[in-house]
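Tokens as discussed.
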């Protein structure tokens, strides 16, 4: 069965960095894409990033482009989201997710079929 487990969230000051991990099981990363989605209470889900299963291409929302980097380690079946120069508006619960579709490039897709439980990222001074 498809399972996704996020980790790496926490409290960081503005300008700081965090690295989120998404450990996938039930499939390999060359079979299904992985997206990162964040949600703030009272706001719609925002697709942050996606990494393609077919060619490894990566996609980002305008709000994080240049600051966040998605990558994969196929040997570990794990996807990472390196978040640099964090801003208070990045505060959210971050989910990794997948579905049997290609990544949507612009903006990244916020709707998926399988979700992790999420990891809290709080950016505050």
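Sequence:
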């Amino acid at each position: 069965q498809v399972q996704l487990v996020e980790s790496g969230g926490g409290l960081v000051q503005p300008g700081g960095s965090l690295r989120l991990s998404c450990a996938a099981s039930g499939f390999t990363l060359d079979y299904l894409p992985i997206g990162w989605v964040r949600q703030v209470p009272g706001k719609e889900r925002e697709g942050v990033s996606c990494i393609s299963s077919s060619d490894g291409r990566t996609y980002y929302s305008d709000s994080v482009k240049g600051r966040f980097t998605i990558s994969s380690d196929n040997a570990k079946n794990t996807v990472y989201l390196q978040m640099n120069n964090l801003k208070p508006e990045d505060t959210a619960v971050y989910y990794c997710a997948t579905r049997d579709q290609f990544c949507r490039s612009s903006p990244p897709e916020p709707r998926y079929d399988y979700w992790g439980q999420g990891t809290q990222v709080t950016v505050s001074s």
